[in-house]
């Protein structure tokens, strides 16, 4: 049985989307139990609409709901210990739940998760991992916005975190890892990216395959299973891709309604268009995963509907079932056991002087 | 009459694409003259195929051709003074041409352009500007890869350069400027981006309207006319968008050929699909513009065909005709005349302490 704590007050629609999502999810995974945190007057009416939830949901009233526009520091000040967001995270810390899901604001959720769960030993900073649909399937991209900038060791941590997530979620035994970089020779890359590449190359971890640098267009191609970057460029890449997808969908809609002929064409091809819509459905890959904390927190998109929120729960469920945290801990241990190899890095680096990265 | 210098040896296809592009372009703009640099044995056979070019092209043989995989330092070492790339750039410096177009490798072209033309007075570093198709039209995004990282003053320079290009190319009197950033409150932004925002806000230039921070998905929406960022995230945004567009085009092709019905639909809607293809045609927005140098250099995509290369020439032509360099110089002068206002920044900043950016 997997136990899931839910912040019912997050997102643009709150319990009106979250509660129906629980019902949708429970049909798929009847072996789940929920602890739902929120304001009673908002959540009870929604719960009443889904009698099927009664035996699987424990509801806990919280006076405070973190607002979508609260700054992280405000949220912590007003919501620590008593908001639905805090309590949902805390349920993971207290061992009452295996994973926490919230559609609340990202900054507040990360601040609270960090404060409450703390980062794992040997991890400097947590990251937010996104699942990116590619032409080959799905890849993981991290960090997409937990923090700005990262040094080489933090990038290596992200590689380990993302690699463990890839194995837990997609059952890829040795996921391939790429460091996001720009392709122009010689101005190629920030020093920290280059150094991270060297560390990954020389430690030769059994849990992952370091493939070298990748560029922005490699993400959608699925060139590697895990794309590692710091939060600024990761966030920009993610939002740029979302924006481009919306832009093209708009072009397509406009093109299909431009003439009678195109409308007839649309009518015949509507099955294909539905398949395409399915393929481009951002709800299916909804959910940013907070990695590097002592517990799993999944951030659902704030504007999503109940299908999207249910997809975020799916994600949390799968990661718990596949023991994500254990895998990360094992990989970290492995990495630090290989540390003596790292000490060889200085020598190796001198040997390789002038040799470029892939 | 506008005089254009051409590096015929650049790109994946060299003169086989470049020369036909000249013919295509000349039909549109018969008032142009070309100086074409390249290896005689490669260029002459191509020129022979287009007798219409004879009266408009001066050909100059160069022994050396910079290769697509040459590192900038190699290219400079072997090609300075004698390669087709160098000579084409130098023609601008010597006043023999108004603009230089090359499909050669970006790093080498930038290194040579910088070395030969030098950066403008009061500009620290050049930038590469891309034209980005948006749902509202076209925006300019810079820097997309001239260099990694930028301090606040360099970002402000980029805003001025991009603003001038927007006015020269799109006749927008006061283009709106946005600084690319991430949206999470409080971890929001790198210090240099914040500081650039403050400088732009307090100088209140007549030549542009500073609109605040924008995010990755704002680029495709056309939220602002000019998106300013440093080369690492700019390059990643550009390539990620290109990758996403290709990915979706692939999905669409697959969907349309999946069944008889969808093929029939495609047949009826083929006019609409052609319009869509036209809309998504990357060749039309082909050309990265090197800004901040004492002369205009346009970098065409290396893999483009003759239509794409002709579009890059269009771009160079328009910028010359609309006196881009004069505009940049005027804007820079204006900015530095406003410098006394900048000195008020320290005080203004103290007043505004704690107040967020848009």
UniProtKB/TrEMBL annotation, chains A, B:
GO terms for cellular component: cytoplasm. GO terms for biological process: fatty acid biosynthetic process; phospholipid biosynthetic process. The keyword Transferase applies. It is found in: Cytoplasm. It is an enzyme of class 2 (transferase). It catalyses: a fatty acyl-[ACP] + phosphate = an acyl phosphate + holo-[ACP]. GO terms for molecular function: phosphate:acyl-[acyl carrier protein] acyltransferase activity. Its EC number is 2.3.1.274. Keywords: Acyltransferase, Cytoplasm, Lipid biosynthesis, Lipid metabolism, Phospholipid biosynthesis, Phospholipid metabolism, Transferase. It comes from the Bacteria. Pathway: Lipid metabolism; phospholipid metabolism. HAMAP family: PlsX. Catalyzes the reversible formation of acyl-phosphate (acyl-PO(4)) from acyl-[acyl-carrier-protein] (acyl-ACP). This enzyme utilizes acyl-ACP as fatty acyl donor, but not acyl-CoA. PANTHER family: FATTY ACID/PHOSPHOLIPID SYNTHESIS PROTEIN PLSX, PHOSPHATE ACYLTRANSFERASE. Belongs to the PlsX family. Homodimer. Probably interacts with PlsY. This is Phosphate acyltransferase. It comes from Tianweitania populi.
């Amino acid at each position: 049985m997997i136990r899931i704590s839910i912040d019912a007050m997050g997102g643009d629609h709150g319990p009106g989307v979250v509660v129906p999502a629980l019902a949708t999810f429970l049909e798929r995974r009847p072996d789940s139990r929920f602890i739902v945190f929120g304001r009673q007057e908002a959540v009870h009416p929604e719960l009443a609409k889904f009698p099927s939830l009664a035996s699987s949901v424990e509801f806990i009233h919280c006076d405070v709901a973190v607002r979508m526009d609260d700054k992280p520091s405000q949220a912590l000040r007003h919501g620590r210990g008593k908001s639905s967001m805090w309590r949902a995270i805390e349920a993971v810390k207290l061992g009452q739940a295996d994973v926490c899901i919230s559609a609340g604001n990202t900054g507040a959720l990360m601040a609270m998760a960090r404060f409450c769960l703390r980062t794992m030993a040997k991890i400097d900073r947590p990251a937010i991992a996104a699942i990116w649909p590619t032409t080959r399937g799905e890849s993981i991209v991290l960090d997409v916005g937990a923090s700005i900038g990262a040094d080489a060791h933090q990038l290596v941590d992200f590689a380990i975190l993302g690699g463990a997530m890839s194995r837990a979620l997609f059952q890829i035994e040795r996921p391939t890892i790429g460091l996001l970089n720009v392709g122009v020779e010689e101005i190629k890359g920030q020093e920290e990216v280059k150094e991270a590449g060297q560390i990954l190359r020389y430690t030769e971890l059994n849990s992952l395959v370091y493939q070298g640098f990748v560029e922005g267009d490699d993400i959608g191609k699925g060139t590697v299973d895990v794309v590692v970057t710091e939060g600024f460029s990761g966030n920009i890449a993610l939002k740029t891709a979302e924006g481009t997808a919306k832009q093209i969908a708009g072009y397509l809609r406009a093109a299909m309604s431009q003439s009678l002929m195109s409308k007839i064409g649309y009518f015949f091809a509507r099955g294909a268009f539905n398949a395409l819509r399915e393929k481009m459905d951002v709800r299916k890959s909804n959910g940013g995963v907070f990695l590097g904390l002592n517990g799993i927190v999944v951030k659902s998109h704030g504007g999503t509907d109940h299908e999207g929120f249910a997809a975020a729960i799916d994600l949390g469920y799968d990661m718990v079932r596949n023991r994500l945290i254990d895998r990360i801990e094992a990989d970290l241990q492995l990495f630090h056991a290989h540390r003596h190899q790292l000490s060889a890095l200085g020598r190796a680096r001198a040997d390789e002087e002038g040799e470029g990265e892939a």
